[in-house]
Amino acid sequence: MFYKSSDHLTPVSVEEYHRISTLLAKEYRILDEERFSDWLDLLHPEIHYWMPGIENRRRENPLEYGFFDSKHMAYFDDAIRDIKRRVSRFSQPSAWAENPGTRNVHIVAGIEAFYGEEAGEYCVYSTFQNIRSRGLDEEYIFSGRRYDTWSLVDGVLKLKKRLILMPNATLTCKNINTFI
Amino acid sequence: MANRIKTIDITDALPDIDDFCDIPNARISGEIFHRQDIYEQELEKIFARCWLFVGHESQFKKAGDYITTTMGEDDVIIVRQKNGSHKAFINACPHRGNKVCFSESGNARGFICNYHGWSFNIEGNLIGQHESGIYESSQFDASKWGLREVAQIDSYKGLIFATFDAQAPSLEEYLGPMTWYLDALFDNQEGGTEFVGGCIRSTMDCNWKIAAENFVGDILHAGWTHDSAARAMLGGAVSKVSDFEESYSVNWNGHGYEFALDTVGNVAVLGESALNKYLHTIKPSVIDRLGEFRANMIGSVSSCTIFPNFSFLPGQNTVRIWQPRGPNKIELFTWVVVNKTAPEDIKEKWRKGAMITFSPTGVFEMDDGENWEYCTKTARGRVTSQQDLFVGLGMDTYLEETDLPANVYSGQLNEANSRAFYQYWGDLLKSPSWDAMPNNNKGKAKAGPKASQISDKTDGIGEK
Amino acid sequence: MKRVFLCNVSELSVNTVRKVDNAEHGDIAVYNLSGQYYATADLCSHATASLAEGDIEDDLIVCPVHWGTFHIPTGEARDFPCEINIRTYKVEQEGDDLFALIADKAEDPSLIAKG
């Protein structure tokens, strides 16, 4: 995806890897179970949750990060207030498009975990696939890669930064009515 | 040199247009969202003839800056020339038809076809090929084989439009007095507007007209469809549109703009008080520039479609095209528009605010997409598609006595614009040429002297 | 060795190139790179194109047709699709006049411009 991550980070211990990888699995389980308030509990109050739009550009005309740019349009470019607003909309009785509800499966794979630059911070890379079904026959599948920073707050890991990159320059469905 | 496109032949009209588009009786049929033969007629008689939005001047900063988009289902390249003008070409090589530009935007010296190395400069001229010797020995005339240039291209206040039809009326005539209203968003400050970088593209399994008609004049859906989003963004229900003292639906040539005069009703749903404040801060200068009436429109509860498929929401500042991709599918291109002179932090809040409300992850758009897809899907039913659909709200709301330009109707809870949209659509499907198009415009082609100050308090018009 | 008149210095502003017709040896492109004068064959060695219609980028001339490049001082082909070097000529200045020195035969056969 032409975003270049650092190769100079130190991998975490086996115990820490276990802790982080089970946390990512748990995060996706609670999203699939529509436990939004539990999911919000995993987020750092200063979170930057970012899924930039992907632009199909020639190699000699790269954007700030090749296919994307921090000043350009984004699917998500959220602070905690924005995420809470999205959750609030899902939770309204008048969220017509969520009744009947959307059925989600989130899959995480290829987890790599490293010590971050700051003490108590971890850089966590992973790939994901999200499968959604709505109504009787709608199915939407999309995949991508995530670059996370998790930070220890009072001994508990909180998601402080997440960059979500999907390969698609055109989202081939009507929305992304979930978190990744 | 670049070569003008060959005009396509206009086939006979469908025999049953009055059956599925019967506006005098305020009814349409769902088959207009489903039938392949109607869709093919649309590509020919609407998308190959009308002026279509292709880009904003701010997307092109220097010569060779280009974007690729589509006009109907035709791929086109828009590229800025050395003299600052813009040209639009069919994005297909005249040799075997391969696409010559695959990138969605960038800067280029020209376009080289990957297939046989035909090379075109930004003016569209064919300037060479790989193995050039064989062309020379075949008496090849390069001047006849440039990129195919659209028939007409023109712009209004930064908005660039193009048409494949040399016979189409000028852009000025096509937009008519709608430009007076467009200024409320696109020219409320010196310097006009610019697009934020990027373009979000997504697809919906809906007919393009449902989306275009939603923006042409359907505020009625907002209070119900978007209740959840409004509560999430505002912490309460959206303002009740029927409570507005004064609002209008105006249309011309199938374009339509519905609006209240509450200044900030649309911008408020972004949940950023700084944006409301910005509009209030610039409002005195907008009054000086455009008059009080339009100064009340800059971020009010409102929406607009320029026929056929270019739409925007003032306040949310989302701009989009509903690209037709078959009767049951659209590709949605969205941009964010901001005043060029707005402070950077204000532009940034609009970039994020437009996306969190109106984009594939936007809390408002999610409920729209669901509605539009199922309006389309039910029309699959052979019997269902033949049933009448109602477009009859506000049949007696036309305002004869007003200085406001265009065809003016009182009230924005009104299907007058939807009827005008479908009337124009049906007329185009019937008409073999522009000359044969009936003129259904009955309002003023230019704003009257009192238009800029007009309000129900001063001259008694308005719905109450 | 032939001495061929190219153009006047005053006709060649800084960082520009112009084409000089020459039926005998092939057309010549003459360049002014920051006050230093160079001459190369004008015909691209890939496909029919006049290099003088291309853009100068640093010390490279970009072919206007397929955007390959040549190094102006040495004639070396640098970027795809240009792979055959082009001929270069020594330039002499005499007052306001620029001349190219053209050897009867190119010293290096690989530097003979196509055509």
From TrEMBL, chain B:
<dbReference type="InterPro" id="IPR036922">
    <property type="entry name" value="Rieske_2Fe-2S_sf"/>
</dbReference>
<dbReference type="GO" id="GO:0051213">
    <property type="term" value="F:dioxygenase activity"/>
</dbReference>
<keyword id="KW-0411">Iron-sulfur</keyword>
<dbReference type="InterPro" id="IPR015881">
    <property type="entry name" value="ARHD_Rieske_2Fe_2S"/>
</dbReference>
<keyword id="KW-0058">Aromatic hydrocarbons catabolism</keyword>
<dbReference type="GO" id="GO:0051537">
    <property type="term" value="F:2 iron, 2 sulfur cluster binding"/>
</dbReference>
<dbReference type="GO" id="GO:0005506">
    <property type="term" value="F:iron ion binding"/>
</dbReference>
<feature type="domain" description="Rieske">
    <location>
        <begin position="52"/>
        <end position="125"/>
    </location>
</feature>
<dbReference type="Pfam" id="PF00355">
    <property type="entry name" value="Rieske"/>
</dbReference>
<keyword id="KW-0520">NAD</keyword>
<keyword id="KW-0408">Iron</keyword>
<feature type="compositionally biased region" description="Low complexity">
    <location>
        <begin position="438"/>
        <end position="451"/>
    </location>
</feature>
<feature type="region of interest" description="Disordered">
    <location>
        <begin position="436"/>
        <end position="464"/>
    </location>
</feature>
<keyword id="KW-0560">Oxidoreductase</keyword>
<dbReference type="Pfam" id="PF00848">
    <property type="entry name" value="Ring_hydroxyl_A"/>
</dbReference>
<dbReference type="InterPro" id="IPR001663">
    <property type="entry name" value="Rng_hydr_dOase-A"/>
</dbReference>
<keyword id="KW-0001">2Fe-2S</keyword>
<dbReference type="InterPro" id="IPR015879">
    <property type="entry name" value="Ring_hydroxy_dOase_asu_C_dom"/>
</dbReference>
<keyword id="KW-0223">Dioxygenase</keyword>
<protein>
    <submittedName>
        <fullName>Aromatic ring-hydroxylating dioxygenase subunit alpha</fullName>
    </submittedName>
</protein>
<dbReference type="InterPro" id="IPR043266">
    <property type="entry name" value="RHO_NdoB-like_C"/>
</dbReference>
<dbReference type="InterPro" id="IPR017941">
    <property type="entry name" value="Rieske_2Fe-2S"/>
</dbReference>
Automatic annotation (TrEMBL), chain C:
<dbReference type="InterPro" id="IPR017941">
    <property type="entry name" value="Rieske_2Fe-2S"/>
</dbReference>
<keyword id="KW-0001">2Fe-2S</keyword>
<dbReference type="Pfam" id="PF00355">
    <property type="entry name" value="Rieske"/>
</dbReference>
<keyword id="KW-0479">Metal-binding</keyword>
<protein>
    <submittedName>
        <fullName>Non-heme iron oxygenase ferredoxin subunit</fullName>
    </submittedName>
</protein>
<dbReference type="GO" id="GO:0046872">
    <property type="term" value="F:metal ion binding"/>
</dbReference>
<keyword id="KW-0408">Iron</keyword>
<dbReference type="InterPro" id="IPR036922">
    <property type="entry name" value="Rieske_2Fe-2S_sf"/>
</dbReference>
<dbReference type="GO" id="GO:0051537">
    <property type="term" value="F:2 iron, 2 sulfur cluster binding"/>
</dbReference>
<feature type="domain" description="Rieske">
    <location>
        <begin position="4"/>
        <end position="100"/>
    </location>
</feature>
<keyword id="KW-0411">Iron-sulfur</keyword>
